[in-house]
């Protein structure tokens, strides 16, 4: 998989960020959620999946067209 950087709301250029993949998907870079209560609220989180938290402001990068 190859990724194309779409944007970040960090002025330091670090996490969090949004990427577009060459597989017609998005990749989200953010803080890993480790809070057991928050993880319990996730629906059908698979054994090979994880969840990350990003600021709402970052969602603007998901619309690229």
Structural class, please? Answer: mainly beta
Widest beta sheet: strand line-up: 1-2-3
Largest sheet: 3 strands, antiparallel
Q: Give the strand content.
A: 25-35%
Distance between the termini: 21 Å
What would the principal axes of the Cα set say about the shape? globular
Share in helix: under 10%
- From N to C, what is the helix and strand string? EEEEHE
Could you walk me through the main structural features you see in this protein, from its secondary elements to its overall organization?
- Helix content is 9%, strand content 29%.
- It is mainly beta.
- The chain has one domain (3-62).
- The strands form two sheets. A three-stranded antiparallel β-sheet has the order 1-2-3, with no helix packed on it.
- A hairpin with an 8-residue loop joins strand 1 (3-8) and strand 2 (17-21).
- The mean pLDDT is 88.
What descriptors fit this protein?
globular, single chain, 1 helix, two-stranded antiparallel sheet, mainly beta
How do the strands and helices of this protein lay out in sequence?
Elements: E1 3-8, E2 17-21, E3 26-29, E4 31-32, H1 36-41, E5 52-53
Antiparallel strand pairs: 1-2, 2-3, 4-5
Task: Provide a short characterization of the protein structure.
The protein has 65 residues and is mostly beta strands.
């Amino acid at each position: 998989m190859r990724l194309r950087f779409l944007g970040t709301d960090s002025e330091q250029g670090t996490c969090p960020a949004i990427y577009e993949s060459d597989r017609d998907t998005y990749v989200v870079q953010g803080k890993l959620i480790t809070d057991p209560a928050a993880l319990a609220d996730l629906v059908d989180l698979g054994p090979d999946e994880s969840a990350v938290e990003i600021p709402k402001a970052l969602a603007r990068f998901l619309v690229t067209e």
